[in-house]
């Protein structure tokens, strides 16, 4: 393995024996369902797995959630909050699991964090340098779902749309549905630009759960030589 930048001091990425698999996608893309199916598949094949994701750090996750609910985070503060959350998980969960030979399944990774900051006006180079500590995953799956389908799925599941996932803080529209569509298009544009640079495998998430799972499984089997 290797880092995107300088990485963590004292940790040789080349000595990490496990695999890091990332599944990216917006809320409503089917990401959580596919993560669960992949986890069950891998464990059924005898592989030990560890789950990580955004806002799961024991260091700052509760404080970050409280700050988000108040909708009062400044741009730099928000960026550093998420970067701290990621760094804590990297040091205390991801790297120890990889060192032990586990397969780490990441429910979103630095790409969502970077895209969110960039569409809010953050400098590209600054955002990338912020996550220079990140390990390069062995496989990145990006579930691409049309914004209209995302609205339908989120509303069907939660009967509402999330303030942040709708980009309401950006002032794109007073209507949360319209804002959601516009914001998700901006995020997808960033993912399209990152696709080649970060070697995403893009999966059409508009299809059935079984079809999507089959494509993801095939990619994982190729990675692991199954």
Secondary structure layout:
Layout: E1 19-24, H1 31-44, E2 49-53, H2 61-70, H3 75-99, E3 103-107, H4 110-119, H5 124-130, E4 139-144, H6 147-158, H7 176-198, E5 201-204, H8 209-224
Parallel strand pairs: 1-3, 1-4, 2-3, 4-5
Your description of this structure?
- The structure is a single chain.
- Helices cover 52% and strands 12% of the residues.
- It is α/β, with parallel strands linked by helices and 226 residues long.
- It has a domain at 13-145 and 200-224: Rossmann fold (3-Layer(aba) Sandwich), CATH 3.40.50.300.
- The protein has a five-stranded parallel β-sheet, sandwiched between helices.
- Helix 1 (31-44) crosses helix 8 (209-224).
- The two termini are 20 Å apart.
Key features of this structure:
single chain; alpha/beta; Rossmann fold; five-stranded parallel beta sheet
What is the CATH C level class of the domain at 13-145 and 200-224, in words?
Answer: Alpha Beta
Continuous helix count: 8
Within CATH, the superfamily of the domain at 13-145 and 200-224 carries the name P-loop containing nucleotide triphosphate hydrolases
Structural class: alpha/beta
Please state how the strands of the largest beta sheet are arranged side by side: 2-3-1-4-5
Radius of gyration: 17 Å
Mean pLDDT: 89
Please summarize the sheet with the most strands: 5 strands, parallel
Q: Flag low-confidence runs.
A: none
Quote the distance from N terminus to C terminus. 20 Å
- Based on the structure, what is the oligomeric state of the protein chains? single chain
Strand content: 5-15%
Strand runs, count: 5
Q: And the CATH topology of the domain at 13-145 and 200-224?
A: Rossmann fold
CATH architecture of the domain at 13-145 and 200-224: 3-Layer(aba) Sandwich
Task: Provide the succession of SSEs.
Answer: EHEHHEHHEHHEH
Residue share in helix: 40-55%
Overall 3D geometry?
A: globular
């Amino acid at each position: 393995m290797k880092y995107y930048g300088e990485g963590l001091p004292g940790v040789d990425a080349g000595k990490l024996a496990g695999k890091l698999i990332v599944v990216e996608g917006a809320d409503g893309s089917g990401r959580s369902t596919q993560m669960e199916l992949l986890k069950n598949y891998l464990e059924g094949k005898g592989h030990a797995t560890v789950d990580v994701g955004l806002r799961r750090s024991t260091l700052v996750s509760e404080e970050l959630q409280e700050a988000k609910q108040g909708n009062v985070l400044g741009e730099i503060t928000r960026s550093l909050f998420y970067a701290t959350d990621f760094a804590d998980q990297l040091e205390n969960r991801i790297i120890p699991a990889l060192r032990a030979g586990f397969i780490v399944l990441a429910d979103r990774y630095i790409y969502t964090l970077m895209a969110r900051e960039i569409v809010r006006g953050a400098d590209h180079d600054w955002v990338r340098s912020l996550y220079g500590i990140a390990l390069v995953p062995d496989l990145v799956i990006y579930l691409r779902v049309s914004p209209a389908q995302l609205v339908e799925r989120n509303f069907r599941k939660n009967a509402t749309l999330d303030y942040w996932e709708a980009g309401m803080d950006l002032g794109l529209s007073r209507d949360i549905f319209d804002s959601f569509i516009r914001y998700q298009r901006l995020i997808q544009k960033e993912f399209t630009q990152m696709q080649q640079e970060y070697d995403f495998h893009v999966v059409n998430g508009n299809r059935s759960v079984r079809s999507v799972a089959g494509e993801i499984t095939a990619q994982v089997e190729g990675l692991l030589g199954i």
